[in-house]
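Working notes for the structural subgroup meeting. M.R. asked for a predicted model of this chain before we commit to crystallization trials. I am recording the input and output together here so anyone reviewing the notebook later can reproduce the run.

Input as submitted:
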Amino acid sequence: MRFLSGLSAFPITPMDRDGKVDSEALRKLVARLRIAQVDSIGLLGSTGTYMYLSREERRRALALALEEAGGHIPVVVGVGALRTDEAIGRAQDAKALGAAAGLLAAVSYTPLTEDEVFEHFTTVARESRLPIVIYDNPGTTHFRFTPALVERLAKVSGIVAIKNPTDKSDEIGRHLADQRGITSDDFSIGYSGDWNATEAMISGADTWCSVLAGIMPDVCLRIVRAAQAGDVAEARRLDATLSPIWDIFKQFSSLRSVYALADLLGVCQAEPPRPILPLPEPARRKVADCLALLRRDLAEVG
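Returned structure, recorded in token form:
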């Protein structure tokens, strides 16, 4: 059985300007995901701005999320750090608190070689004994995992899954098939990049790692369940209703947009950590218009 499957929802981490987590707001976000019954929660991913939080605040966020999830939903948590010893510490914290796995990216100021990344991941997995999910996120780390490196890492004890980026939707099927060919049957293969993720699930990916699901899980779950049931037409039909959201994500970034969505939906009022600025008012109005259109379209499709 593969470690992760279905919908993994990645919420924001509301915090104040001093980097202290807003516990009430985070609980509300996790409660929405628990009630929706997502398959897993991706806490402190890039959308969760993990690199902007201290070790203490990461621990506090995870403890709050695990308590709110109530043991019913696996929580995968970001454990990335610039130094290997720091990443080990974050992973050990996560294991001690009860996280299901750690999400580890090749975070660095200095560009890393494949051997350096292999050693980093191997050491964190070995020293922490926490299951590790490879986080391939070249948009922020500027490091891309090659097939050769994925194949090496997938053979390491404790490295159990990968979260891939998505590029062109018509290339996902081939990418997935190639990755299946170099990994074991129990290795979970997931994709992010919300606007292409429906095609990834239709192609047979295990997991959709979704930003939108972190704030609007219900429609994302419907897409995943349709894809899992082989109902390609329904999955694509629902995905089409989200096209305005995907356009907003592409134009303003999913991170900034989802903060605006959280406010517009009345879930929480929060701003991304500085120096990231919230959306300017004209962009926020576009998000509000998009949300109103989406609600209408979803009501029509039932």
